[in-house]
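Input record, target 12 of the design panel.
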């Protein structure tokens, strides 16, 4: 969908994907397609995951070009990062930080 992936990594309960969002598609449409295609791939290729499904929602944050390398590094270090900070705490902190800018 004209939105090439830059970095992808996961832990047991979530996935981080950094991509360049196309000007021609809304983020909701890109995420919908990503979830649909990956869900199909998992079900077709991993017998033990035949009942796999994504959660209903997602979180999305914009990143300035000057911070792409920082975010790539953050995504690459997910397993180590989540040994220190839970997913729930991380989301709460991101929401808190994003609210301080308004």
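The sequence produced for target 12 reads:
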């Amino acid at each position: 969908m004209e939105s090439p992936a830059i970095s992808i990594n996961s832990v047991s309960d979530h996935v981080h994907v950094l991509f360049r969002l196309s000007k021609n598609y809304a983020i909701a449409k890109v995420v919908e397609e990503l979830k649909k295609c990956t869900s199909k791939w998992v079900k077709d290729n991993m017998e033990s995951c035949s009942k796999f499904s994504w959660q209903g929602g997602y979180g999305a944050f914009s990143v300035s070009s000057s911070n792409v390398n920082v975010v790539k590094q953050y995504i690459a270090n997910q397993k180590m990062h989540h040994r220190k900070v839970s997913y729930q705490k991380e989301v709460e902190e991101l929401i808190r930080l994003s609210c301080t800018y308004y």
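The two ends are 31 Å apart (CA to CA).
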